[in-house]
Structure formats: structure tokens, C-alpha cells
Amino acid sequence: MPYLERDGDVHILHLGTRGEEVSENRFHPDMLTELDTLLDEVEAHDGPTALVTAATGKFWSNGLDTDWIFGHIGDLPAYLDSVHRLYVRMLTFPAATVAAVQGHAFGAGAMLALTNDFRVMRADRGYWCLPEVQLNMPFTVGMAALIRARLPIQTGVEAMTTGRRYGGADAVAAGIVERHVDDDAVLATAVEQAAALTATRGPNLAGIKRSLHTPLIAALETKTDESNFKFG
Questions:
Q1: Are 163 and 130 contacting, i.e. CB atoms less than 8 angstroms apart?
Q2: CATH number of 3-220
Q3: Is 0.85 surpassed by the pTM of this model?
Q4: Fewer Cβ atoms within 10 Å of its own Cβ: the N or the C terminal residue of the chain?
């Protein structure tokens, strides 16, 4: 399950289980609940802070928990809405957020990276990818809006319609991430960037983010049903 660490005033939210290097960090409902709890803890911190989202091993996040979905098809709309709520919370989080993408970020995990204010990616290994077109999976209204809002339009077209895998240098060139660095520098670089922004935390920052993302938030808050997402 996800856990928190501290580096000075910066909170580091690890998406995987402590000590586990092989997890794909997929969005099981229990993981989503725990992420919400940990974000509450960061928000409750008294004083300047910022947030880095990180992981270890091969994956940053492989997105939706398809094993869980196949066993709970009737719960899929509510499950997707819970993923959307996480996206909204990250987009409007009252502290600066930086994703330290050390491994693969695929599908809904790639979208989670986009909800951070800034992104640092490993240069030599790991891909950012939206494989839905290859998996014959549609995007929800909110997910499509997220990609349109957070990426250059031609990058969004390419990523959504071809399933291209972007390595670190390609991701910078495409406007998906701002920086690519060596593997052992990903987390440190993200923490350094976040540490420079700790003084901005607070309700004013949250309000600025909400105003920036108003149309996107409205799309993500659209209730998922058969009118905006085809099942099966």
C-alpha cells in the first residue's frame, strides 16, 4: 500500500508498498482509499510543504487495476469516478506537486502523472504511454479532457490514437514532462524542485489551480455512465 516519507518540508508519497520492488502500483480501490488518507495527512501538515509522487522498481504506475475490474464489472462506473476524484484532488492540491517518474507510467497511471503540477522522468528507461487504443478501451469524458488540457494537442492526438511509448527525451520533446535525468537523480531532482515551492502551499494556491483547471474539473466530475463511457 502507498506510504509517506519526509525530506525536509517535502512530503514524498510513494505509490507502492514499502520495500516492494515488483508492484505495478495499479489503482486497486483499497489503494485509492489509502491515497486519499495520505493526502489528508499532507494537507493537515502545519507549515510550508510540497508533495512529490514517487515509486520504486520497474513501474511508477500501470494505471487501472484490470484484474479487479474484470471481477467487478458492475462496479466499473463508480470505480472510474473514484479515479477521477483522485485526479481532481491532485489537480487542486493546496501545495506544489511534482511527479518523480522513475519507471513505466501507463494508461490511468500516465494520466495521474499529468495531474501533478510538474514532472521529472528517468532518461534511460521507462515509458509514458496511453495504450488504450491498442487495448480497445475507450477514454472517459474526464480522461480525454485531462489529456487535452495537460498536453499539446498534437501530442494528445498521437498519444491517444497510436499508443506511442515515450521515453524520457521523447517525453520532454513532446511536452509530457519538463525534465529527464539519470535514474538515481529522479527523486532527488523532484524533491529539489518541490522544496523550492513549499512557501506557496495554502488555500490561495488551491484556488489558483482550481481556476486554471475549471473546465477540466467539470469534465472529471461528470458522472460515469453509458452516456459517456461504453462498457464491454
A1: yes
A2: 3.90.226.10
A3: yes
A4: C
The C-alpha cell of 41 is what? 495527512
pLDDT digits over 78-105, tens only? 999 999 999 999 999 999 999 999 999 9
As a whole number of angstroms, the distance between CA 212 and CA 217 comes to 10
DSSP-assigned letter for residue 112: H
Question: 104 to each of 113, 122, 141, 168, 224, how far by Cα in Å?
Answer: 11, 9, 24, 10, 27
> 132-140: long-range contacts at Cβ-Cβ below 8 A with a sequence spacing of 24 or more?
132/107, 132/160, 132/163, 133/160, 133/161, 133/162, 133/163, 134/163, 138/229, 138/230, 140/80, 140/84, 140/222, 140/224, 140/228, 140/229
* Residue ranges covered by each domain of the chain: 3-220
Listed as own residue / partner, the contacts of 221-224 with beta carbons closer than 8 Å and 24 or more positions apart are 221/84, 221/88, 221/142, 222/140, 222/141, 222/142, 223/77, 223/81, 224/76, 224/77, 224/78, 224/80, 224/81, 224/84, 224/140, 224/141, 224/142
pLDDT in tens, 108-119: 999 999 999 999
Q: What is the 3-state secondary structure (H, E, C) of 198-213?
A: HHHCCHHHHHHHHHHC
